[in-house]
Amino acid sequence: VPDSVIEAADDIQLVDLTPAQLRERLAAGKVYLGDRAAVAAENFFKETHLTALRELALRLTAERVDQQLRNIRESGGTRAIWRSGERLLVAVGPSPFSTRLVRWTRRMAYALDAPWLAVSVETGETLPPDDQRRLDENLALARQLGAEVIVVSDRDVASALLRAAHRHNVSQIVVGKPRGHPVVEILRGGSLVDRLVRGSGQIDIYVVPAEPRTGRNRWLEWNVSIISRPQEYALAAGVTAAVTVAALLLAPYAGYSAAALLYLTAVIVLGRWLGQGPIFLAATLSALTWNFAFIPPLYTFRITKLEDGLTFGLFFVIALITGRLTTRIRAQSRAQEASERRATALYQLTRDLAAARSADEVIRAAVSRIADVFGARPAVLIADSAGHLSLHPSAAYDVSPKESGVALWALQHRRPAGRFTDTLPASDGYYVPLVTGDHVLGVLGIRPPDDLPLTLAQRDLLDTFAAQLALALEREQLRVASESARLASESEKLHRALLDSVSHELKTPLAVITGSAEALLAAPAGPHSASLTREIDSAARRLQRLVNNLLDVTRLESGALRPRLDWCDLRDIINAALDATADLRREHPTTVNLPDDLPPVRGDFALLEQAVFNLLHNAAAHTPAGTAIEVTAHIDTLDREAWITVADRGPGLPAAQAAQIFDRFARGNPARAGGLGLGLSIVRGFAEAHGGRIEASANPGGGARFTLFIPWTPHESIPSE
Predict the structure, then answer these.
(1) 315 and 431 Cβ atoms separated by less than 8 Å
(2) Do 120 and 156 meet the contact criterion of CB atoms below 8 Å apart?
(3) Does domain 88-211 have CATH number 3.30.450.40?
(4) Looking at the domain 562-717, which fold is it?
(5) Is residue 207 within a helix (H) or strand (E), and if so which, with residue range?
(6) Topology of 375-475 in CATH?
(7) What is the pTM of this model?
(8) Phi, psi of 397 (to 5 degrees)
């Protein structure tokens, strides 16, 4: 059963039987009978196979119930953790230690046989290129090891992790051991672990120790946090110089205390736009300039009054506090803006896809929106039934054969490939498969500028775009299939009404013609009259066969055909069909090979005779005069099937027509014989009504061979009524 069918089911009920119980049912003949049961017991019904299948069924049911539980929690708005199963969450950051943390969580999840999530928190702070690259690698490793990767935006890392844990019903959170200075952690309101423990509730917290690091690394991390653009430092120095000029002009009237207020105001105002480093520079320059140019004794760095010394130190305190607060506010603002941009982009894409009225419009809308959001050139490659990719005309760049190979790899493995990945990273484009359930509809490619790499958040957004595009394409395919099915249904209704009407309109006059011809043949008449009468009789019988075929098709289409099963002798069925087609086979020598010990079959004698009649009529009508026809029958005791084969030595059957030859109104060679092409279709319908089938193949040595398969059960295995 495809996964898409299970996902679409409203409810799933598990019927659990142990392998021993299943094998007992097989041995009792409740699954297969006779030799087939013995063969199944040594193959599919091995205890190891049944145990593996049972595990799959239990796991699938557990995953379905877990998803239902999560939906209930989300719809009810509860934040309580329901310990129905284990689920792990690991916090992933740009630290080199995160690699070890991810692998540790993977081992623990494997030991617990539990799903796990890797969560990265975007705080709004701009990471250095090396840290951003390391973060992407850590998350890519987590995804490769089987984690569900989630990226959230929040200035408070602990709050973001707890929110994600409650949303996904996580039972255990894994974090690294804090390595900050205790005093700094106290000023921050506690370490990450402390804040997680305070808000965890029923969630377990695992703290994994990190490798020791040098003081140089700690200094580098602090140094990176205060680095800003050179323009910001220049602005801080320029504003300080301008304030100094203004303070010098006001000094004769307001005194040096007013100059201190001007400097403090400038530092606070600069904190609105500048980072921590430029603010600290502005505070340092302001304090030194105020001390040198305004505090007596002038033009020295000596401070004689206590209040002046306090004011001097206040510059640095205000600078540190202001810089920290403004940096946090701007980081939160950037995170919110990024989140809003992603949500807006996703909403606009969903709106555009919903407004599209064809698969072509869906692809063009997606390509246009992706180009606007990512500033890159997208392309969509559509997969056909054979797994070959074709470039959609809306592509913004030409996909070379090399790039097509990368896209084909992504299609076949259902994983992103190309640039920014570990698979064929030298490619120019990044390729994401368009996956929906069990189907892969194509590949979405994107080629960003060489100097503009895609961040992890952008790749996650692109993956979401690809999922939405795949769903929209599947929706269009289903719509087209539904429309085709509706048209086919209407056409079938029209065909059935036409066949029923024509059949009944022709049946009465044909009966009159046939009766009259038979009366003429019975009465004495001249040679010419007898010849005409035979032609009337032949034509009438031909029309009678056509009408009977139309009636049989009508019964098959309406579902009114119900075989009346009884024990039948295959020899009688074949001989009756041979007698009925004697006139048709006058110019075709016929060989009949039937075993002497041919056992009876359970079927509808009239339907099986008509099926063999149609096969013989088909062989005689579509082969040249003088060619032989061979009829054989056989019982396959292993597969429990009865075979009736009609082979001819005609022009043969092309391999391309072997499947379509049994369709209604299909004819192998319309120029050779008339008819509507219903005979073989009726044979298939009669065979399927018995639970069997009909197959066509080439006859060794030339010609075609048609084999009718009917289920067979030994006579002694059928209980008496």
Answers:
(1) no
(2) no
(3) no
(4) Heat Shock Protein 90 (3.30.565)
(5) strand 204-208
(6) Beta-Lactamase (3.30.450)
(7) 0.51
(8) -150, 155
